[in-house]
Amino acid sequence: MINLKIKNYKKNIFLSEKQFKNHEFIFLNYIKKLNNYLIKNNINVKNKFELIDFLYDLPEYEKNIFSQLIGGYLNHEYYFNNITFELINCFGEIKKNIIKNFKNYENFKINFIKNFINFNGWGWVVINNNKIFMLKTYENNNPLFSVNLGGYNSIPLLCVDLHEHSYYLDYLNNKELYLKNFLNYINWFEVENRLQNYFLNK
What we know:
It comes from Candidatus Carsonella ruddii HC isolate Thao2000. By secondary structure, the protein is mainly α. The protein has 8 helices and 3 strands; from the N terminus they run αααααβββααα.
């Protein structure tokens, strides 16, 4: 069973409570569907990495179905955990790596918006072979997945939901403003923790 407590909403200029709750409902529905699948098939897992390990043991005809359930859960978990309702400056090893790969933080933000403004899916900052880069996944594919399942065998550091349901109530068609505000409300403690875990486990 997947149990998850979503953070409490606090008033901010990034997301209205209505937008947040609407998106939260979609996330919780993915968790419900995934749990139903796990119970129906008598599957016991302790963490998300065990979910992915189990995925690769499935028959081919079931892999795509289960990967979409896992991805719907994982992607939203990454997104909700890496947003915050407070202003936090980028710091630590993640800041050093952003500067190393994008020259400076402003250039990172410009590239982030340029990469994701016209895409409908998921936007990611990932690390692979000690290099940080941006990539996109369609539907509910996750960078952790193998290439044949729509992934990149990469470790997610930062995730932004680019589907309309994540922003349309607050931003209508102004995706650029959504992305700009997203960049101001990133939980860099969470992102730094993901990067440090990568270094510890590589």
